[in-house]
# Entry
Amino acid sequence: MSNQTATISTSFPAPAKPTPASAAARTKRQLEGPIFSTLLKLSAPNILNLLAFTGMVTFDGFFLGKLGSDALAGASLVFPWVMLVLQSTNSGMGAGVSSAVARAIGAGNPERANALVFHAFLLALALGAIFSGLMLFGGPTLFRLMGGQDDMLDAALTYAYVALGGAAAICTLNFMGNAVRGTGNMGLPAGMLVACVLAHIAISPILIFGFGPLPPLGAAGAAWGLVLPFAVGGAWFVWYLHSGRALVQLRFRGIAPAWELFADILKVGVPGLVNIAITNLSVVALTGVAGRLGRDVAIGYAMGARLEYIMQPIAFRSRSASAPRSSPWSAPTGAPASIDARARSR
# Structure
């Protein structure tokens, strides 16, 4: 290992108290339980994740339609780009995070797992900045090419500048949630996303139409209703991982970024990102074709695209459950030695 990696290792002392018995029991079930039923249990929260994403963005259409056809059509041009950010950071690059963390834990190297969480946090900020920068500088040209014009274009830009300008919040929640998934805890990230959806449903109508002294924000209100819950959820995951309550920890001191750790995430995340990008960019292209045929055609196609997005989670998230199940898990402190031996032999 390099000197840089050695510095990372020494900055993460072992936890003072043993791993809870519940974690040992979860590891035992993943190692020795029936494969099919274990994959079903692990994939169910993951399927819920993407269904939550789709429901979150689809919900906007109901209220944006009350603002008029131009607002709904404008948001429809942005919809596949928002789904690209949501899916690529949760199912694409996010899978790279959970896989790298799971492999580090399985190799009996919690210091490396902790360092990977920090590198995932840096990647989340970098990827969020890239998405935001592309939309800030290329949004007007992009949505014109997709058929946006006049009020329809204004609505698309209003929605996109907020929804994609806050991409770092989306990336942070998804990357940190995937770090938790890498420990085998699928329920907590899924629960957080459900909470974000419920918060979105609660605050979006208020932000769109206004309430009391709060003025109506229109299409921007729908976008704020998306970004704010993710920002709160992402901040909570940062706190949770930094507090030491998870099996992995997020530390900001004593760590120098190391390319080898970035590469460990990217070697799984980039192929997943490409796969997600191809799927979503095909929707972008078809949305652009529909948009150039007219406002009503764009709205009609966007409604169909939302139905397609509902079908995707079953395939995308069922496969991701195999990462913690198939990784060479090491038994937590206090687990029987036979579990640890089997984990290291896998």
